[in-house]
Amino acid sequence: MVDHAHSTDAAVQKQLDRLTALSPGRDILGLERIALLCERLGNPQHHLPRIFHVAGTNGKGSTCANLRAMLEASGRRVHAYNSPHLVRFNERIRLSGELIADDLLAKLLEEVLDISADLRASFFEVTTAAALLAFARTPADDVIIEVGLGGRLDATNIIPAPAVCGIASLGIDHEAFLLAPEAGVPEQPLERIAYEKSGIIKSGTRLATLAYPPAVRAVIAAKAAAENVAVFAQDLQWRMEPQDGGFLWIDDQGRHFGPIHPALAGAHQQENAALAMAMLYLADQPSFDPKAAASGIAATVWPGRIQQLCAGPLTDILPQGSQLWIDGGHNLDAAQQLQRYLATKLAAEQPIHLVMGMIANKDAAGFLALIAPHVSSMVAVPIAGHEHHHPSELVTMAKAAGIAAATTAPDVPAALAQTANKMGEGQAGHVLIAGSLYLAGLALEFNQQYPQ
Predict the structure, then answer these.
(1) pLDDT value at 1 more than 50
(2) How would you write 311-334 as a 3-class SS string?
(3) 174 with 147: CB under 8 angstroms?
(4) DSSP 200
(5) DSSP class of 101
(6) pLDDT per residue over 226-259, tens digit each?
């Protein structure tokens, strides 16, 4: 899938345009190009502060956000690399707690592109190299790096052994890249996904994971054993228990920490927060600070994940008192988590009016089938600049899933105007924009609510 980036800064946009022109225009897995690129740049990956590396199908970004918030709550300076961005490319690179400035971003991209023009490096490889260069040149105590795609052959895996690796929720996604036949690797889809994600495990690191089915756990354990790494796994070495609307985190000695109350919505976010705690617990000095962990998780911000939008141009379209939510989940595992939240929270109050768009290589029919019982109407929209399911196809899928009131609109504002008419004048309701992180980013941009 082609990556896209735009900037209101002319110097940054100039380099992003160069990047688009020079890159192959598609995802490419493998470490050959990023290794050559980093070598030309002086191997910045070998000059980083303490590294945390996080893989997973879903939840890895939220895990990174919780981890960063905990570290910052303890007074540490933290770099972070995440993808994709929602509105501005700068969201991908955070230096000592702040999004990278436009002038520095433009210079870094220019430097990397000048030195790599003949490599045909991908968009993600170039931006990863730029991030590593920024991290190596800017003082900090820690750096958190989110895997882009898979793990074993992802460009971020050029880093040396991290202090701690984390593996978040596992599910089926990016099948064309991660499930292609290959000798010597598992054939069962979820086991193959686990094989790819566990590729970030290196000798000398420490590893925290969530709980997985036995066959999946065995794949990760085998990779860890091959690297002489102990697995710190949920329900085996650590666990969590619900308490007071949050959870207790319990270590391998039976000590209880909490209750922990995540700022991010959804039961799945409790697991992501707990995984982040497990990673921090494993890290070397300073020693684990439960108070900083609790306060950091309670203050974590990670836009686009079951997020209620504040007052702005989009929310103003809806009847007064309505709630407008966005969620960027785009695969079946994410749909299951969203379905649980709708059933227990939003849709428990009243049915949801859905605005949906989805990238072409995602299972839109399966996604709709899971959330349809909680949806009273849907407006399907395109996702500008990306290959997507045609809105009319989404309408057909929605009706097959039982959403009778399904229509199309050219964009998100028009979809909300249609939804407002369905709701009726003065009739407040809940509206959810879902199906794609790109769509969530468009909604934030329309609402003039920019991630910081």
Answers:
(1) no
(2) CCCCHHHCCCCCEEEEECCCCHHH
(3) no
(4) G
(5) P
(6) 999 999 999 999 999 999 989 999 999 999 999 9
